Amino acid sequence: MRYDTDYFIGQADTSSPVILYNVNNATGPDAFDKAVSKLMNKVNSEAVSAGNGLLGREKTKFTQYITIYALAQCTRDLQPLQCAQCLSSTLQYFPVYCSHRQGCRVLYISCMVQYEIYPFYFPLDSKAKNPGAAKYATTIVHPH
């Protein structure tokens, strides 16, 4: 729930990031960071593609024993271009806060990205779409 004196519907808010990261470092950190970067670009592109409901989720096998799971999501009031800009701005924090980390999350009011080495979203199959995802209602309340 958000309350504000300014009209904010349909406007990306990237003013105050919240950054959470795993304190454990990844094995093979440079290769891990490269795999994360490629995966995050993929989920960001998926999130803004038509028909995905501003949600992107993918996984990639890093080693025989390690799978990286990633998620990118925007609030449903944004247009795809605004979502893309919001998600793109989250990635600027990756070199400083997420480098070599086993997991990291950057959250704005309007969008968020996250990757981990454990499954944290459902369904795990990124191709299985949630049939209820396209069904939503928007209510705008104007003060009198």
Global mean pLDDT: 84
Secondary structure class reads alpha+beta
Tally of contiguous helical segments: 3
Euclidean distance between termini CA atoms: 20 Å
Q: Helix content range of the residues, please?
A: 25-40%
Assign the CATH class of the domain at 18-116.
Alpha Beta
Full CATH superfamily name of the domain at 18-116: Gnk2 domain, C-X8-C-X2-C motif
- Known CATH architecture of the domain at 18-116: 2-Layer Sandwich
What general outline do the C-alpha atoms trace?
globular
- Widest beta sheet: strand line-up: 1-4-5-3-2
Domain Gnk2-homologous: 14-120
Pfam family, one: Stress-antifung
Keywords: Repeat, Secreted, Signal
Family: Belongs to the cysteine-rich repeat secretory protein family.
Protein described:
This protein is globular. Mean pLDDT is 84; it is low at 130-139. With 144 residues, the protein is an alpha+beta fold. The chain has helices spanning 29-48, 80-90, 94-98; strands at residues 18-21, 55-61, 67-74, 104-107, 111-116. It has a domain at 18-116: Killer Toxin P4, Chain A. It starts with 17 loop residues before the first strand and ends in a 28-residue tail after the last strand.
Distinctive features:
single chain, Cysteine-rich repeat secretory-like protein, 3 helices, repeat, signal, 5 strands, alpha+beta, CRR_secretory_protein, 20% strand, 144 residues, Killer Toxin P4, Chain A
Quick structural gist:
With 144 residues, the chain is of the alpha+beta class.
Topology:
Layout (H helix, E strand, L loop, with lengths): L17 E4 L7 H20 L6 E7 L5 E8 L5 H11 L3 H5 L5 E4 L3 E6 L28
Antiparallel strand pairs: 1-4, 2-3, 3-5, 4-5
Helix pairs in contact: 1-2
